[in-house]
Amino acid sequence: MSLTRPNFKMHSASKSKLTPIDVALDSLLRAVPHVEEQESVEILQARGRVLAAECKSDLDVPPYANSAMDGYAIRVADLLQEPVTLPVRQRIAAGQTGTALAAGEAARIFTGAPIPPGADAVVIQENCSLNGALVTILQNVKKGSNLRQAGEDVAAGAILFTSGHRFRAQDIGFLASAGIRRVQVTRKLKVALMTTGNELVLPGNRLQPGQIYNSNFYTLSALLDALNVEVVDFGIVGDDLESTRKALRDAASTADCIISTGGVSVGEEDYVKAAVESEGSLDLWKLAIKPGKPLACGKISVEQTETQFFGLPGNPVSAFITFVLVVRPCLLRMLGCSSPLAQTFKLSAGFERSASGERQEYLRSVIATHQERGREILPYTNQSSGVGASLSHADGLAIIPSYTSVAIGDSLDFIPFSEILN
Fold first, then answer.
1. CB of 184 within 8 A of CB of 53?
2. With contact defined as beta carbons under 8 Å apart, do 297 and 281 qualify?
3. Other C-beta atoms lying within 10 Å of the C-beta of residue 39
4. Collapsed DSSP state (helix, strand, coil) of residue 322
């Protein structure tokens, strides 16, 4: 495995000050290491992967002029009057080629079929009347009507995608239309995932007093799977310093990046922060967001190699929020993605809220339709960071800047889950 780290050093983590998320993201996205290795993959395996080299088309798409509709190929010069009747001399279906169209004749043609030489327009069949081998054109057309010209979609030599593009489903068909079967992408990231806490057990086991099911592992595994990375399960790490330090060392020897949940707060049983500082360095601790304040970012050092580390809060909502807002864009940037941040959209508030505090708030919200006000955002009733149900019932996150009150009708930034869960 080979990663390059940009020549950029983050400021040391403050012991008390909360870091605004924009400041943290700017620093992290410039500081995270980048994957160097590339691999060639079939386009059917390329969705979610990041392009490593410019991708060009070697041919025109479409490769020949063809009909956009079912109808009759004609020469516009023959339509001197309306209506005009022409003999139908040939029939051209998709996958067939016709012969040159002489003056004063028409060709029956179907969608996708090549335009015969001499023809310069297609009259749709609804504007024609057929009588045996004669077709009456009921409506004149202009040159080029209902034709798709060669190279209209893509010209030979055109750049389809530049390095850093992350492929979506529609991109795969676009590549196929240009005859491209394989693309060069950055290799997959290997991410070590661990959860901390003596109280955690896996689903399928009977809960004992004081225990809870380890939902964070499953949430984060699913989020990582959507990013097309390789997940290495480091299991549940007990709440003690030496176990945490050993787990971090082992993970750093195996993976490109380590993600843990829990143990990053300031309680007597929270050992992750101390373990990271013992085994490497802590670049960021405590974000000015709600939920998700206790986020730790740093590096674990093993044999002169530094492995990126993200320590997420243990509360299910906080772990989810910090992953999608911070870790996800960082992982995408590590893969070379040129646009790692999610888009936000403006929507009106359908609620009132008193002024927020120092931390920027991310409210799990639904998009509703009010009879008079139209589409608007409504927050889930319980915004506790431990209420995982709020994530499943919400459509996305409404952003409330620090020290900001909200009135009905105010315009708010909204991040739909569709932007951050793929």
1. yes
2. no
3. 13
4. helix
Distance, first Cα to last Cα, the chain: 25
Give the Cα separation of 121 and 144 in Å (integer). Answer: 5
In a shared domain, residues 192 and 325:
yes
Rounded Cα gap, residues 153 and 143, in angstroms: 19
Q: Which domain holds residue 403?
A: 345-419
Q: Is residue 340 part of a domain?
A: no
Could you read off the pLDDT of 104-136 as tens digits, one per residue?
999 999 999 999 999 999 999 999 999 999 999
257, 308 Cβ separation under 8 angstroms:
yes
Structural element, H or E, at residue 274: helix 272-279
Q: What is the pLDDT of residues 33-69, one digit of tens each?
A: 999 999 999 999 999 999 999 999 999 999 999 999 9
**C-alpha torsion angle, residues 121, 127, 129, 135 (rounded to 10):** -10
Sign of the four-CA dihedral 314, 320, 321, 324: positive
CA distance 307 to 252: 6
d(CA 284, CA 268): 20
Judge contact between 399 and 360, C-beta under 8 A.
Answer: yes
Write phi, then psi, for 245 (nearest 5 degrees): -65, -45
Q: Please report whether residue 178 resides in a domain.
A: no
